[in-house]
């Protein structure tokens, strides 16, 4: 990961000062670096030690960072990773344009791999992520969204880059097709579990620990799994209140919504769904050669369920 950070710092250089300033602002905020770590773990498990893995790990982090810049503008977010979002600090136009810079820089870097399969995976992932963003936008304030529709969004918007990161590790290692698919399955399951837990924390987390505002999903009118489960399990009055909160982004009703989510057992339902995805990831990881790297993949999936931020 230190090598990846070196690549990131080097490739953020731009002749336009604001580009570098905004890019460094959001990347220096830290974050979990899960996607590049996933690529490194998979390539390590499959015996790939080439320098190209550091470059592609930086590429997926750039793509992820670009999506964050655009997300925060669309969602009108003000807090991420414990400090003001880039759009709050530099304005929406700068955030959107620097997001575009990071996307294009990522594609410049992936050309260095000189591998059409790498290009195909990343181009497809970027396109699917964009579709997921639009799909989520269409679903805003839609209280009729069901679990299948919810999963479709997060598998496109969040899990796709996890899937691509894991698949890239297998491609770099020139793994057989069945191992590549196992790696992709691991990434998709891990990414899905990650987002489901993230949605739990919006109703059961600590703002200071998470580094973002509690209730943001409700304010944005997102019908996430905790709310979907609460409406399925609640009384008619509880369903009506949650439905009204989603349709109107009624953050003033947050305390009541949180109470309903807890009373109906919706958090347990959601955590169970995340645990099922984590188990699916672990089963995929067990198809890889047994070593410290693949054991790291198993541990990552298991520990994901304990995250608090």
UniProtKB/TrEMBL annotation:
GO molecular function: all-trans-octaprenyl-diphosphate synthase activity; metal ion binding
The keyword Transferase is annotated on this UniProt entry: yes
EC number annotated for this UniProt entry: 2.5.1.90
Keywords, sorted A to Z: Magnesium, Metal-binding, Transferase
Catalytic activity, as annotated: 5 isopentenyl diphosphate + (2E,6E)-farnesyl diphosphate = all-trans-octaprenyl diphosphate + 5 diphosphate
Superkingdom as given in the UniProt entry: Bacteria
Cofactor(s) it depends on: Mg(2+)
Pfam families per record: polyprenyl_synt (PF00348)
GO biological process: isoprenoid biosynthetic process
InterPro entries, alphabetized: Isoprenoid_synthase_dom_sf (IPR008949), Polyprenyl_synt (IPR000092), Polyprenyl_synt_CS (IPR033749)
Enzyme class, broadest EC rank: transferase
This protein's record includes keyword Magnesium: yes
Protein role: Supplies octaprenyl diphosphate, the precursor for the side chain of the isoprenoid quinones ubiquinone and menaquinone.
Family according to the record: Belongs to the FPP/GGPP synthase family.
Entry protein name: Octaprenyl diphosphate synthase
Organism listed in the record: Ramlibacter humi
């Amino acid at each position: 990961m230190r090598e990846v950070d070196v690549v990131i710092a080097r490739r953020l250089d731009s002749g336009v000062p604001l580009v570098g300033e905004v890019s460094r602002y959001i990347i220096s905020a830290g974050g979990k670096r899960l996607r590049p770590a996933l690529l490194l773990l998979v390539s390590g498990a499959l015996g790939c030690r080439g320098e190209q893995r550091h470059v592609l790990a930086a590429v997926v982090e750039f793509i992820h960072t670009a999506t964050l810049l655009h997300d925060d503008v669309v969602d009108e977010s003000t807090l991420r990773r414990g400090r003001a979002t880039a759009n709050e600090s530099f304005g929406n136009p700068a955030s959107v344009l620097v997001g575009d810079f990071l996307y294009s820089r990522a594609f410049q870097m992936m050309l260095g791999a000189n591998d059409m399969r790498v290009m195909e995976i990343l181009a497809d992932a970027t396109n699917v992520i964009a579709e997921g963003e639009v799909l989520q936008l269409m679903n805003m304030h839609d209280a009729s969204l069901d679990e299948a529709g919810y999963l479709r969004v997060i598998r496109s918007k969040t899990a796709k880059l996890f899937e691509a990161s894991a698949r890239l590790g297998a491609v770099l290692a020139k793994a057989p097709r069945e191992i590549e698919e196992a790696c992709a399955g691991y990434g998709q399951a891990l990414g899905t579990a990650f987002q489901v837990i993230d949605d739990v924390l919006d109703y059961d987390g600590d703002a200071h620990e998470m580094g973002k505002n509690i209730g943001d999903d409700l304010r944005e009118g997102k019908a996430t799994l905790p709310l979907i489960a609460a409406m399925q399990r609640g009384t008619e009055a509880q369903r009506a209140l949650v439905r009204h909160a989603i349709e109107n982004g009624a953050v003033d009703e947050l305390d009541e919504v949180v109470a309903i989510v807890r009373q109906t057992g919706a958090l347990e339902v959601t955590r169970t769904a995340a645990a099922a995805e984590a188990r699916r990831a672990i089963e995929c990881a067990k198809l890889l050669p047994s070593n410290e790297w693949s054991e790291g993949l198993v541990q990552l999936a298991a520990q994901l369920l304990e995250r608090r931020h």
